[in-house]
Amino acid sequence: MSLLQDTPAAVSPSIGEDPSLLIVDDDKPFLTRLARAMDSRGFKVETAESVSEGLETISNRPPAYAVIDMRLGDGNGLDVISELKARRPDARGIILTGYGNIVTAVTAVKLGAFDYLAKPADADEIYSALMATRHDKAELPENPMSADRVRWEHIQRIYELCGRNVSETARRLNMHRRTLQRILAKRAPR
């Protein structure tokens, strides 16, 4: 379901007594649509377009729920999630990002995020993440990626981020350039 299709849903009893929700995102159209969609699901929504606005809202009225973009114009959404957990330890915050990777996901969870979603996430996914309990998380996959495949994908991601520059990728991975060239020439492991 798209954020544009924010059909009213019944107020969930799992929202609890405090339905306050803070959404922090610098993408104004997305922020507006998500706020409208969450309002129709029973939340009392406040919005912020920057880290500083988010921190100010949290210091005045720490919300029970939060949806925070990772990269904002004036800083990092992890600062907002960290402050939210310091002010209100029982709050449920999720991080949204277009730059998903394992390291930032782990960091977000360590700083207090309940979940981590990659953009584009729709209102239903976000609502489900906010209302989930820890045991609602996905089960361990039957056939997880092998360590070789995870390593290969990490190398490919760094290679792409470096603009397909082998020398720069090798330097960042602390690897010999020729070794990296051999890895890149091979097929992806299973």
TrEMBL record:
Molecular function as annotated in GO? DNA binding
- Choose any GO biological process term that the UniProt entry carries and state it: phosphorelay signal transduction system
Keywords noted in UniProt:
DNA-binding, Phosphoprotein, Transcription, Transcription regulation, Two-component regulatory system
**Species lineage:** Bacteria, Pseudomonadati, Pseudomonadota, Alphaproteobacteria, Hyphomicrobiales
Instruction: Please identify the protein, giving its name as recorded.
Output: ActR/PrrA/RegA family redox response regulator transcription factor
Q: Which residues form the Response regulatory domain?
A: 20-134
**Residues modified as 4-aspartylphosphate:** 69
Q: Which Pfam families match?
A: Response_reg
By its UniProt entry, which CDD domains does this protein fall under? REC_RegA-like
Question: InterPro entries this protein is in?
Answer: ActR_PrrA_rreg, Bact_response_regulator, CheY-like_superfamily, Sig_transdc_resp-reg_receiver
Q: Where are the transmembrane segments?
A: none
